[in-house]
Amino acid sequence: MISCILLSAGSSSRFGSPKALACLNQTTTVIEHIQKIILASQMNEIIIVLGDRAEQIKPFIFQSKGIKVVCNEDYRRGQTSSFKAGLRRADTGSLGVMLVPVDYPLIQNQTFRILAEKFLETTPSVILPSYNGKNGHPPIFHARLREELLLLDDSTPIHTFIRQHTGDTVILPVNDIGVVTSFNTPQEFEQVKACWNQLFHSRP
To answer: SS3 letters for 5-21?
Structure first.
């Protein structure tokens, strides 16, 4: 069993509006697309962490028994704070917890599946996808790290925590540019949107 924590709590200050609500086409927002992809990959549950402008985003969250919503009142403390808020709500029976930032909308369904299958097969402390030699998202953390993650200072980036566990981290090469492609500005989003249309426009 793997739980997925979808982070959508940041203020998106460089983007100018919630990244989750950026429109990939006339009918699909970023957060709707990512939910569809994760649900199709058969994760056991999705915990969506909201913060800034949560009430604007909530209407775009699917009504599904596999989806939980958490509002992180301390979202200004950064991504680690939001991940910890989601982790507290994750099913304690999960063997692993996957972290998916909302600004990575190009990750493909098969990548989620491949990562989950490799994690369940090898059970490392951490598994990371890589593309062309560059590590990316989403990582999966083993349940044995749960308490250590919850004790992280909010100022400690998740990538710093991962580096502390390099001895038991599996790097999994994938043919998916989405694992290393995110956006922070409107200009970057236009590039992401063009790539998204090539990858997903013909898919239901």
So the answer is: EEEECCCCCCCCCCHHH
